[in-house]
Design goal:
With 422 residues, this protein is α+β, with helices and mostly antiparallel strands. 26% of the residues lie in helices and 34% in strands. It has a 6-stranded mixed sheet with strand order 1-6-2-3-10-11. A 6-stranded mixed sheet has the order 5-4-23-22-26-13, with helices on one face. α7 runs parallel beside α10. The longest helix is centred in the C-terminal third of the chain and has 21 residues. The relative contact order is 0.17.
Length: 422
């Protein structure tokens, strides 16, 4: 059985933070009798540590020789039930996954010869044609399923895959022998109905369901007849949720699979009215065109895509995060195991009881939007507290990203939770 160990710390000196996090890992290793040597490691660091990233990586490689390291920087990082924002901090996670089951990749280390089933992706937000690169990476996996996010920072950022990188994509791919469950949680709520884009010029949508798009927007916000100055505060808070035409045509959820990750569809019309599903990508509303009665969005859209105007909503974000955590826990733990495997799992879980780990979940990665985090959820670390309450005290690391990646899409204002099965 693969074990996951994690540690995290904050300190002005990155060396001290690393020593503290490493001590936590070694303590877990001792308590659980974990003799196998680790092979794969994750490191997430706040922007304060980016300047020291090469030295940090060198020290990680010295402490744990033979471990392949991947990771990224963020304006905040996540570990266990804690969030670190605006302070020097790092989070580590190690596993003893057999080396034939994964491959670390980057622009300098292609995936040639490896049968990728799924992949964790970290990317530089300044990379040109990023959406196309993500789709190309998705096509290189058997399931098409990616999870991860864009490195973030107010002034600088980096991502890591055996070395410290800027530009492009990097991460780690897994073969079919690594069982994952992944879900996307939305942070926005629609304020009007789903409509079909029926006319568009570049990024200006002029018609929705053959009706002027600006008229639809004002109607949904109940601003018809309002003076521009009165309407402006509401318009500044308004976003758009987009769904590809092919995704909108599918109302059923992708069936869960032991061989990959599953997501929910489109606006998830089967029972969750008033909430976005996993295929909805939220984008900014960047302008109005009164002459053409159009609305400009921060993305390229096409005729046939579906759109709904939306706003960020704390309660909706909390409900949706609780929902996906429950779905992940249920999927991981509901599958019947053969008797020998069940007995082995029971024995292992008993051995891990002191750590409070949830049966069936070995470790987790959580990538959330930089615009979410505890402040958005009402208190420091409130978002991670929800995840921890639902999953138990499982090893978990992650970061707050400049954009979240799931399947072949780049999202905003979402969270992507991925767990590794035991």
């Amino acid at each position: 059985m693969n074990r996951f160990l994690h540690g995290h710390a904050t300190h002005p000196d990155w060396r001290v933070a690393l020593t503290l996090a490493a001590a936590q890992i070694e303590a877990q290793r001792h308590e659980r009798g974990h003799a196998a040597a680790p092979t794969l490691g994750w490191v997430y660091l706040t922007e304060h540590c980016v300047a020291h990233a090469p030295a940090l990586l060198a020290e990680l490689q010295r402490r744990w020789p033979g471990v392949e390291w991947v990771g990224a920087s963020g304006v905040g990082i996540a570990a266990g039930g804690a969030e670190y924002f605006d302070e020097p901090a790092l989070a580590l996670m190690l596993t003893d996954l057999a080396v034939e089951h994964f491959r670390v990749y980057s622009g300098a280390r292609p995936l040639a010869g490896f049968a990728a089933h799924t992949a964790l992706v970290h990317a530089d937000p300044g990379t040109a044609d990023l959406a196309e690169l993500i789709q190309d990476m998705s096509a290189r996996t058997a399931t098409g399923y990616l999870f991860g996010g864009l490195a973030s920072g107010q002034a600088r950022s980096c991502h890591i895959a055996g070395s410290v990188l800027s530009g492009g994509l990097s991460g780690v791919a897994f073969d079919a022998g690594v069982a994952l469950v992944s879900r996307v949680t939305q942070g926005c709520q629609p304020v009007g109905p789903q409509r079909r884009i029926s006319a568009i010029e570049r990024n200006v949508i002029t018609e929705l369901d053959d009706t002027p798009a600006l008229d639809c927007l004002l109607r949904d916000l109940q601003l018809e007849g309002s003076a521009p100055r009165e309407a402006l505060p509401r318009l500044r808070q308004t976003l758009v949720g987009l769904i590809d035409a092919a995704d909108a045509a599918t109302d059923a959820a992708t069936p869960p699979s032991r061989e990959g990750a599953a997501t929910r569809s489109a606006f998830d019309q089967a029972g969750r009215r008033g909430a976005f599903g996993a295929d909805t990508r939220v984008r900014h509303l960047i302008g109005l065109d009164p002459g053409r009665r159009g609305v400009a969005i921060a993305d390229h859209a096409e005729v046939g895509m579906q759109l709904a105007f939306c706003t960020r909503n704390v309660q909706a974000a909390r409900r949706d995060l609780m929902r996906i955590c429950a779905e992940v826990r249920e999927e991981v733990e509901s599958e019947a195991l053969p008797l020998p495997a069940a007995l082995a799992l029971q024995e292992s879980v008993a051995g891990d009881a002191a750590a409070g780990t949830a049966s069936g979940i070995a470790g987790a990665i959580y990538v959330s939007c930089a615009g979410r985090g505890g402040a958005h959820f009402g208190a420091p670390s409130a978002e991670l507290a929800i995840v921890r309450h639902a999953l138990g005290d499982v090893p978990l690391v992650g970061f707050f990203a400049a954009g979240e990646i799931a399947r072949q899409h780049l999202y905003g204002y979402t969270g992507v939770l991925t767990v590794f099965r035991r």
